[in-house]
Design brief:
270 residues; alpha/beta; Rossmann fold; 9-stranded mixed β-sheet; two-stranded antiparallel sheet; Probable electron transfer flavoprotein subunit beta; 27% helix; single chain
Length: 270
């Protein structure tokens, strides 16, 4: 039996445009950051989040009302939103920043997402029931936004998820999460913030028909002012340099020669 409209779930998936994982990172000539004139793509952990949202809709068979993706970034970030729409998301929100603006810090992003969640709650169709997002972005590796968002909203959180089961009728979820030395199973009530780990799924490739369909799906454009958020950084990067070049190793012909070289280097037996 199809769930009633009042019980349908709305899923929000924040995504980020980041330097492609296959690109060799280089410091820019000004030593103020990395060279951004390279290929960009969706943050891999966010791809997993989009995939999991689409799989939830497939598994729950009619219990998911909408999957909305959101990104905060320059105009080019719209390409990343189109990728998520081609994967199966229904609509998108682009909080557009000037090309020259620094990347928002995790707290600023969490505050913007909180404002967006509250904004969605005022719309017809109900608010957000589930936020699924990557556990971290591969550019800054902060891994903080999901936890901050849950704290700001006063929602439960399940981080580093490797398995997610949602009970749409009971408005609850069971999450298997990665922890040091193994895994942990936990249950939580919706609304909930879930951050995704690598083992959760393998994202699908968008088919050509879905890529074409994605061009017709709506993307709502907002500004930081629309959400009442200030993205001014609290931290200042003074200088970035590349690590020193690693010195090549050498070969030894015997154990005795190895021991002698270790002694020369100042290592002594314990």
């Amino acid at each position: 039996m199809r769930p009633s409209a009042a019980r349908l779930l709305n899923i929000l998936v924040p995504i980020k445009r980041a330097v492609d994982y296959a690109v060799k990172i280089r410091v820019n000539p000004q030593q103020t950051g990395i060279d951004l004139n390279v290929k960009h793509s969706m943050n891999p952990f966010d791809e997993i989040a989009v995939e999991e949202a689409v799989r939830l809709r497939e598994r729950l068979k009619g219990a998911v009302a909408s999957i909305k993706v959101v990104t905060i970034g320059p105009a080019k970030a719209a390409e990343t939103l189109r990728t998520a729409l081609a994967m199966g998301a229904d609509s998108a929100v682009h909080v557009e920043l000037p090309d020259s603006a620094p990347a928002p810090e995790p707290l600023g992003v969490a505050q913007a997402l909180r404002a967006l969640v509250r904004r969605e709650a005022e719309r017809e169709g109900g608010g957000v029931d589930l936020v699924i997002m990557g556990k971290q972005a591969i550019d800054d590796d902060a891994g903080q936004t999901g936890q901050m968002l849950a704290g700001l909203l006063g929602w439960g959180q399940a981080t580093f998820a490797s398995k997610l089961d949602v009970d749409a009728e009971g408005k609850s979820a069971v999450v298997m999460r990665e922890i040091d030395g193994g895994s942990e199973e936990m249950s939580a009530r919706l609304p909930l913030v879930v951050t995704t780990d690598l083992r959760l799924n393998e994202p699908r490739y968008a088919s050509l028909p879905n890529i074409m369909k994605a061009k017709k799906k709506p993307i709502e454009k907002l500004t930081a002012a629309d959400l009442g958020v200030d993205f001014t950084p609290r931290l200042e990067t003074i200088k970035i340099t590349e690590p020193p070049t690693r010195v090549g190793g050498g070969k030894v012909a015997s154990v005795d020669e190895l021991v002698a070289k270790l002694k020369e280097a100042g290592f002594t037996a314990v």
